[in-house]
Each structure stands twice: as structure tokens, then as C-alpha cells.
Amino acid sequence: MAVSLQTKYPLRPITNNVPRTHHLSLLHVRVTCSATTTTTTKPRPKLVVENRLVNPPLPNDPTLQSTWTHRLWVSAGCTTLFASLAKSIVGGVGSHLWLEPALAGYAGYVLADLGSGVYHWAIDNYGDESTPIVGTQIEAFQGHHKWPWTITRRQFANNLHALARVITFTVLPLDLAFNDPVVHGFVSTFAFCIMFSQQFHAWAHGTKSKLPPIVVALQDMGVLVSRRQHAEHHRAPYNNSYCIVSGVWNKVLDESKVFEALEMMLYFMLGVKPRSWSEPNSEWTEETDISNNQT
Known about the structure:
51% of the residues lie in helices and 4% in strands. The protein is mainly alpha-helical and 295 residues long. It has a two-stranded antiparallel ribbon with strand order 1-2.
């Protein structure tokens, strides 16, 4: 608001025409002022929404780098997988079985995608970092929703070591207990897809120009989950496209609302709400990678 004062008479010394004998007397002078106000309407400030990173992992963050312990676990997991695959091949050659182990391997591949979806759904919606055994993975997946691009910066063994540990302790006893080529056809393929599902997941967040051509080809053929398909998982309402091996189960599970039915069942039985029912907040929503603009 601007205020301007205008006087009807100029303010000049008032004693010029007054006799000196009256200088000491009290003079009453009436001054009339007019005031005009002008109001200027300022435009309201526009709401500016900025993409801000709240402590995202940096490219050289130790949490994204592989350690020798990670590499040893991945090596152990690969060894048990190779042993299982070798038993399937050798056993199949020795017993002249080819179709049965191959079909078992295909079943392992298909069911691994389903298994990855069920597990992904569970840790996305229930538990927290204090949950026994899987707490660190729950925390990591919640961070992944906040900064999904960081998975492309994790080193190979860093990304796989947790699943490699599970595969080692699961497949090793089966390697020692069974020699059936059909059993190992299923086990080797299923375990391979589960262990490397996080790598398939990382590729689904990668840029095609930066991915190996063979990976892009497998994604285009639907053998591996594609970036376009997995992108649906990172959009509201964040309750679909959980499978991260091939993604072949995503459409079936989403259209039949299997996970929504499981959520309702768990809610009525245990009174526990999944995270996907909550209004997305700053801990759910994705922040943009602006580090490239800062470097």
C-alpha cells in the first residue's frame, strides 16, 4: 500500500507577516491535508515444487560397492547352481532323458517369476528394518522406491549377495541329497532366476543405450522383465507389477487382483494394513536423479 500526502496550501514560514510583538503569542494555523491511498495488487507467488534429494546414496557410496564378503557369497551361490546344473545335464545324458529335465527347467523359470513377485509384494508392504532376517532387504526396497535409479549404480556382487547367501544354504543340501536330473533341472533354473532376479531388476531400470545388446533383445522378447513393464510398479498406486524375472505373471496377478485379495485377508485376520493402502507420502514417492546436473 502506497500513501501520498498532498497539502492544499504550501507550507511556508508563518511568521514573515506577523509583527514582532506577536511573535511570542500563540498562533493557530489551520493546515488542511488531503491523503490519497493507492493499493497495488501484487501477484501471488507461484508454488514451485522442486525435486530435492534427501540424503540419497552417492555414486561412490560404500553401500553401493561390493566387498570381498559379497563376492565370496556370490561365488558360493554360483558354485551350488553350477553343481545342480551339472547333475541335471550329466544325469540326463546318462539316463537318456532330455525332455523331462528341459520341461522341469522351464517350470523353474516360470515359477521363479511368480516367486519373485510374491516376495517383492511381501517386503514392499509389510515389516520394516527391524523385521528379523529380511529387515535389511525391506529397508533397501523402501529406499529403492525413493531413489530407484540407485539400483543401476550398485556393483554386481553388492546387488546379489543377499540372495546368493539364501541360494547357497538352500541348493547345497539339495546338491548333496539328490541326483535326479529332473529335480536338478528345476532346482538349477529356479535358483538361478531367483539369485539373479536383482540383476534383471537393475537392467529393468537401465537405459537401453547403456545395456548390453543381448539384454535388450531378451527384454524385447519378454524373456526378461522390461523397463516399460516394470515402470508401472513405480507409479501410483504402487500395488502392481511385482514380478521381476520375466514379468510374465504380472498381467495375470494384476487383473485377477490376487495381491489385493491377500491384503484383505491379512487385514481381516491380523488387522495389518499394507503400505500400498496408505496415501503416498514423501517416503513412497520417487525423487529424480539430479546428480548428473550437479556434476
